[in-house]
Amino acid sequence: MRAVSRVAAAVLKPTPRVVKELEMSMASASFVGGTAFGVAYERAVESARDDALFVDPYASLLAGKQGNEFSTTFGHLDDPSKLWPRFHKDWTAVRTHFIDRRLEAFEGRQVVNLGAGFDTRPFRLDMPSDSVVWEVDRAEVNAVRHKFFELLGAKPTCRVVSVDLDFALDDLALQDFDTSRPTCWVAEGLLPWLDPQIQIKLIRELTSLSTPGSVVVLNFLDDSDGTSVRESGLDLHSFETADVTNLLATLGWTVIRAHHFGGAELHFGRFRDGYPECRLYSFVVATRDQ
Ligand SMILES: C[S@@+](CC[C@H](N)C(=O)[O-])C[C@H]1O[C@@H](n2cnc3c(N)ncnc32)[C@H](O)[C@@H]1O
């Protein structure tokens, strides 16, 4: 899969009526669902840079009026030294780009985005037309994303299947999913919002649906170095990296690699010189061989 060009950014000019309708449809999201606005806002900030790692032409509209506020809330998890005010925005840019690159490298045709929020990848990445992307989130969030693209008249480059479920209550059931085909599983900004036992259940479930050639890209919080999560006041849950890698190994995943913000592959020139690698913002990527 190849990254889309920046051309799309120039053509996205909805009428004032559409903008008004978008605002109305977005007004109802709950707090956790609403965090997707904050991520969209941070992607809009990145997209506006001359040296942007990616351009998400939808991000600014998706952020709505509340995105900036949610972004500030995430800031509670920022660098404690307070010398890097853009810390969380830079992190969102890096994590987005990291996942974009993983998807570009994936040769399969099934992608499942767990906790998809207001992700726009099927619309901004040049995904092969014969691929399918399942976007899993709560019904209220999926409804807003749906309405958004419908109002804009935007079309994805491949098939998109919306799956309404609550990971805390429901089992992972994906309509038209083919268990004989390799799948790339993405969990971006989702796991910290789930209780640890729900995170483990989800990883077990996706493993049971993964044939050889599948890849899992898990973004999680590793707060083993500090107290950021507790002090944030948010209902977030962290995991030690070793616990994630051990779980995946036990379940049969191989080539398991951990990446921390600031590490060689989770950097992209955005991590400030002199700062220690940040384990709080971590990924584990693994593949399934058999
Ligand atoms: C911070 S947002 C990230 C959204 C998206 N992955 C991104 O990076 O742009 C977290 C997402 O997880 C979803 N989420 C959190 N808890 C959930 C649950 N129990 N069931 C389904 N979705 C959940 C929220 O609705 C929200 O869209």
UniProtKB/TrEMBL annotation:
UniProt-listed InterPro entries: Ppm1/Ppm2/Tcmp (IPR007213), SAM-dependent_MTases_sf (IPR029063), SAM_mthyl_Trfase_ML2640-like (IPR011610)
GO BP annotation list: methylation
Record's keyword terms, sorted: Methyltransferase, Transferase
Gene Ontology MF term list: methyltransferase activity
Record-stated family: Belongs to the UPF0677 family.
NCBIfam families referenced in this protein's UniProt entry, alphabetically: mthyl_TIGR00027
Protein's name according to its UniProt entry: S-adenosyl-L-methionine-dependent methyltransferase
